[in-house]
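SUBJECT: A protein chain and its fold
Encoding: whole-number codes for local backbone shapes
RECORD BEGINS BELOW THIS LINE
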Amino acid sequence: MNTAEIELVKISASLLGGGAIGAIITAIITNHRNRIQPIGKDVNIETVFSPGKIFKDHLTKITFSGVDDNYHFDNLYLVRIEMINEGNKDYPEFNFGITLPDYAKAINIKSSGEDRHHTISVSQNIDFSSPTRIIDCNLTPFNRKDIYNISLFVTCTGNNVISNVDISTDMPIRFKEIQIISETTIVLLEEIIKRTSFWPFR
């Protein structure tokens, strides 16, 4: 090996072992950290009460007794939403919105995944007397691998059947479909019956 070849080997070794390879690794890591963050979500819709599935030839309703009034609904659906931070960033706050179709309204909302240091809040009261189709939610915080669950009891007008729920946010993330793992419909319905006032988030 001549002198020129030796010098070329030395330069190559220096680049591979020093700044060049380090710069490449740094660029890869930076690109990974700065990518649009994935937020896992799943929306699962179940029928709780549908007249056609019980008495096809009879008019039936489901009734809840409140403190002062009785509330009657033609149908009832359970919409379960699960959110997981699958990215590599922690969010002190994470805001997103739930939008139901024009013919559907939420009459109750329940959450899980909260503790002393994790809270879910909504911008409005949701109960028998104040149903809504637009719900703004805030998760505080939403750190890496955090999981939050929101369950909505929804009723529809006419013969409509809820089949889609829109989840949106103005934050720089992308939603990624996941498989929901949550409580059963019966457990959630029993909880609602125990608290017939349909409490809001605290």
